[in-house]
Amino acid sequence: MIKTVNLTKRFGSVPVFENINFEVQKGEKVVIVGPSGAGKSTFLRCLNALELPTSGEIYYEGRLITPKTNLNKLREEIGMVFQHFNLFPHLTALQNVMLGPVVVKKMDKNLARDIAVNYLKKVGLGHRLNHYPKELSGGEKQRVAIARALAMEPKLMLFDEPTSALDIEMIQEVLDVMKEIAENGMTMVVVTHEISFAKEVADRVIFMADGRIVEEGNPLEFFESPQTDRARKFLRSVL
Ligand code: ADP
Ligand code: MG
């Protein structure tokens, strides 16, 4: 589905990550964990071309992404959910979810509304259609953001610490929605420190630190018996 070869990103002369070789198969769920500053967010942002890599290659569905690639089309197919929701405050839940299909896909408004209502119901927000973000809880806002990503019918979804900004009692409702998306077969890359989610959902865990992939493997093995001191130290800090 997506693959990187020697992907490297620097801001000026400061390296964020170097020579990342990463691959996700269709339908696979990959969890990325690692300390703050490891380069996880920047890496995800490179995958859907919100950020340009300094060097290296990205292949999407087998095709190299080049300056000629239609990046808008790529971003349509790769949905992203952010830590801080990034909803438009002046739009209702329904309008937030309709916006992509109407503006980007030029979809008929009535059809976009039906699709948006459908996805908002799927994330358990059928009763919040006309609420503004400020009238919603953190968990509800994040579920609107997930519905918004789903409404574009992406082929791949990237989640960047989707529960890190939430009060503890709202984390599970968001993880439950993500679990359902996973069960429906979506290809997913999830940056999260929710270890029980990773154990239950991930096919593979990647441990990123200091701008590189330090360990990679089966989630149960990684969390039960990490192979490197760096990973052990990190896991002690989050468990
Ligand atoms: P993580 O998500 O793992 O915490 P990030 O990808 O957010 O890591 O950041 C990795 C490093 O890149 C950090 O040191 C951060 O300060 C730096 N960084 C991120 N974005 C920028 C930017 N736009 N300009 C300069 N440095 C940045
Ligand atoms: Mg981050």
Descriptive report:
The protein has 239 residues and is of the alpha/beta class. The strands form 2 sheets. A 6-stranded mixed β-sheet has the order 6-7-8-3-9-10, with helices on both faces. Strands 2-1-4-5 form a 4-stranded antiparallel β-sheet, covered by helices on one side. The radius of gyration is 18 Å and the shape is globular. The structure holds adenosine-5'-diphosphate (ADP) and magnesium ion. Adenosine-5'-diphosphate binds next to helix 1.
What's the gist of this structure?
This protein has about 240 residues and is an alpha/beta fold. The chain contains nine helices and ten strands.
Which labels suit this protein?
single chain, alpha/beta, 6-stranded mixed beta sheet, binds magnesium ion, ABC-type amino acid transporter activity, transport, AAA+_ATPase, amino-acid transport
Q: Assign an overall shape.
A: globular
Structural class: alpha/beta
Placed side by side, the strands forming the largest sheet appear as 6-7-8-3-9-10
β-strand amount: 25-35%
Termini gap: 32 Å
Secondary-structure element order, N to C = EEEHEEHEHHHEHEHEEHH
Low-confidence stretches: none
Radius of gyration: 18 Å
Residues in helices, as a percent range: 25-40%
User: DSSP helix count?
Assistant: 9
- What is the mean predicted local confidence, pLDDT? 96
Q: Biggest sheet, open or closed, and with what strands and sense?
A: 6 strands, mixed
Bound molecules: adenosine-5'-diphosphate, magnesium ion
Q: What is the strand tally? A: 10
Question: What would you call the quaternary organization?
Answer: single chain
